[in-house]
Amino acid sequence: MYQFNQFESRENLDNALADKVEAILREAVKLKGKASIAVSGGSTPKGFFEALSQKDLPWREITITLADERWVNIDSDASNTKLVHENLIQNKAVDANFFHIKQGEALNAETLADLNLAANTTVLPFDVLILGMGEDGHTASLFPCSDEVNAALSQGAPALLKVTPKTAPHDRITFSFSTLAQSKNTILHICGDGKKAVLDKAIDGEETLAMPIRAFLHHPTLQTDVYWAE
Question: Which domains does the chain have, with CATH numbers?
Answer without folding.
Answer: 2-229 (3.40.50.1360)
